[in-house]
Amino acid sequence: MNKIYSKSQQGLLFFALTILLLTLVLHPIQAQEKSQYTLQEVIRLAQDQSPDAQIARHRFKSSYWQYRNFKAEYLPNLSFQGELPHIDRSFGTITTESGSFYSFSNFINYDATLSLTQKVGLTGGDVFISTGLGQMTNYKTDSTSSSSREFRASIINIGFNQPIFKYNKYKWSKQIESMQYEEAKRVLIEANEEVASLAVDRFFSLLIAQVEKEISLKNRSNYDTLYRIAKGRYQLGKIAENDLLQLELNLLQADASVEDAELSYETKLSEFKSYLRLQNDNPIILIPPGETNHFIVPANKAIEEAQNNSSDGIAFQRRLIEAESVVNKAKMDGRFDANVYAVLGLTQRADFLSDVYKNPTDEEKVVVGITVPLLDWGYARGQIKLAESNQNLEVASVEQDRIDYAQNIFVNVMQFNMQKNQLRIAAKSDTVAQKRYDVTQKRYMIGKINDVLDLNLAQIDNDNAKIGYYRSLMTYWKSYYQIRKITLYDFEHNTPIMVSFDDLIR
Fold it and tell me: What dotted CATH number matches 37-63+174-319+394-504?
C-alpha cells in the first residue's frame, strides 16, 4: 500500500532533503579550508599582535609620556592661588614698645593671585609675572570700636628667583631625558626586529615539524611496501630471514616515528598559534621561502651604522653624561651657595574697590641669601672624590662595552656572510641525498640489491639532508634579522629601519 503525501508535506520533505544535501556537500568543503602563511606574513602578524610586540609598544608609550611630562615642566605654568575666605577669630600676641599683650582678632580676609611662571633651564632659575587682589574686613570687638574694610591690589609684579652656585638639574635633565627618549625609540625598533627573529623561529620550528611529519608518513608507507615485497622474496628464497626481520623492524620504527612526529607537530602548532594569537582552528600550511636575495654586509659599515642607529650607541653617550652630572652635583652641593630673589611691581591700597587701581605705588623686593659651610669634616670633598671615582669607573666600563659591542657586531656579520655558502651546500646535499635514496629504493624493489643496510643509510641521509636544508634556511633568516636588530639598518635596501611613532602614541 503506497503512502500518499499532501502537497504541503511534499514541500517540507523536499526542503529537508535540500538542507541535508547542502550540509553534506558544504561540510567537507568547509573542513578542507586551510590557512596558508608565508614567512613574511608570519613576521607581519607577529609584529602586529604577538605578546612581545604589544609589550614593546606599551613600554614605548610609557617612555613617551615620561618625556612629555618632562617637557611640560619647561612650559609656562599658569596658576591661581587664593584664600576664599580666611576667617580668624582668636587671641594673638601684639608686641609694642611698652611690651607684649594679647589681643582678640576678628577679621575675614579674601585674597586671590594669578601667576605665570617659566623655568629657565639654562640658568636653573624661575621668572614670573603675577597680579592679585585682596580684601580684609576687621569686625568690631566691643561697643567702642567699629568695623573697617580695606582693599589691596598687587597690580603687576615681575620677578625672578635665581640660584647662583647651585647644581642646575634642569640643564642636565634636558640632555639626559632627550637621550633616554631617543633610546626608547631605538629600543622599540630593535624589539620589532627581535619579534621578527622569534617569528622566524616559530615559523621554521613548525615547518620542520610539518616536514618531519610528512617524512615519517612517507617512510611508513615506503617501509610497508618494501616489507610486503620482502615477504614475497623471502618465500621464494631470494633474501635471508635477517633482511626480512630488519625491514619489519624498520616498519615498526616508522610507526613509532609517525606518532612522535605528530606529537611534535601538534606541540609546535600550539606554540605557533599562541604566539601569533590565531583563534581559528583551520589547518595551517606554511609555505617555505623561495629564492633568497643574498648580499654581503661590510663589517665596517655595520659597526658604523650600529653606533649611529642602535640604542646601545646612544646609551654609551648617556651613561657618560650621567656620570658627569653626578660629579657636577657633588661639586656644587655642600659648598658656598647664593640665591637672588627680586620683584618689581606696582601696588596700591584703598578703602573702596574703585580706588584700588588709582595712582599705584612702586613695589620692590630684593633678597640675596648666602650659605657658607664652615665645618663639614671633609664630607663635601669625600662626595666629590667618590663621584669622580665612579665616573672613571663608568668611562672604563663604557670603553670596554664599546669594544665588546663592535666585536659582537663583527661576529654576527661574519656569520651572516657565510650563510650564502652554507645554504647552497644544504640545498645541494638535499638534492643529492634525495636522488641517492630514490635510486637505492628502486634498485632494491627490482632486486638489483638485497642489502637492507644500504637502503636504511640512504633513507637516513635523505631525511637528515632535508631537515638540514630547512634548518639552514632558519639559520639564514634568523641571522638576517639579527643583523637588522643590532644595526637598525636594512642592508638589502641600503636604508635605516624606521617606524611611525606618531601612529603608536595616538
Answer: 1.20.1600.10
